[in-house]
Amino acid sequence: MPDQSIPSARPSTQSAPTPQPAGGHGISRRALLGTAGATGIVLGAAGGAAGYAAAPAQAAPLTSLGSDRAMFHGKHQPGITEGLQARGHLIAFDLAAGAGRKEAAALLRRWSTTAERLMAGEAAPHDDTAVARDAGPSSLTITFGFGHGFFDRTGLDKQRPSALDPLPDFSSDHLDKARSDGDLWVQIGANDALVAFHALRAIQQDAGEAARLRWQMNGFNRTPGATAHHMTARNLMGQLDGTRNPKPIDPDFDRRIFVPASGEPAWMANGSYAVVRRIRMLLDDWEKLSVTAQEAVVGRRKSNGAPLTGDHETSPMDLEKTDSKGEYVVPLNAHARITRPDRNGGAAMLRRPFSYHDGFGADGTPDAGLLFICWQADPLRGFVPVQRKLDRGDALSQFIRHEASALFAVPGGAAKGEYVGQRLLEG
Predict the structure, then answer these.
(1) pTM score, two decimals?
(2) Which positions fall inside the Dyp-type peroxidase C-terminal domain (predicted)?
């Protein structure tokens, strides 16, 4: 898990007023808040269920957490540079037997329409489940990508980017093929679990007969506002994870993360590539280590994320500093040392993952870890060289296990009136 990691790349949301739905599209989730509040008052006045507190005299206004909205249309797809969300779902589909380019285009058109409406806090275009009817947009983002096999199935193999070549094998891999790869990938994130689940169901229903589910993974992050002040997120090992993440204010951010407008193939202009890895953390083994030993593995202090040679999270890491015994303060195999961009030819990636916990094994060990998602303009220059170096001697490797892997081409954002991937499918 490279040190250039998780935190929000931008403020957690792009706030905008939630539009009222056009006639015939149903009531917006946000508009229904007032109805829900009024109902609560009536129940309270009538006594409701014995023992429940009386309802407030006025319904509380929708909080900023619920009203925050990300934009569907734009230069880039949503869900890449927005801040970390509290809940996430990752889903991969394979095109159904007999489905080709025509069916794929119709599917992406349906998915784009649904994503635009749900991200605005409106009901799904058809058969809405009403799961999230009381909530606002809650920073919902829905992102779409194409896997390697998608291009063969749609007859578009000549349009497949060379950067989408399969990732090489790594010695740390213990991959479950059934939970890896896929023709189509959808990333859903929101700051409300019901809003995220609502989007998941709508996307699955929209797939219809065109695509079948290959795998799905569920994740979470800390809810925005849970800490007294903004800070880098912690992973399930308890470490601050994301200190060196690239930021949009960096002068070379776009070059490292997004395919240039003049890039190849043309349909990937302003898009990015997502590497998705399910990384199990061997928490029972990790938690047996002392805090000092954990910090030596990572190369940073557990309390505040500071490098072992500094006082603050953003203090420069002095890789040449030695202790009284002449040993490096930041060990040679420390995770933070190995993943530094300046030690990897400038390789950088924008990490935006989710933690996960899927219960316990028969022996009681937790099935928990990180749904690693990293974004880059070229995975052969971003993820691959860093992972190869980690493979050769990262101290953290004995406490993690890579169990699933996928790579997706994520096209640029859809302009108003377009659907995601239209330039590929209709070009």
Answers:
(1) 0.86
(2) 232-414
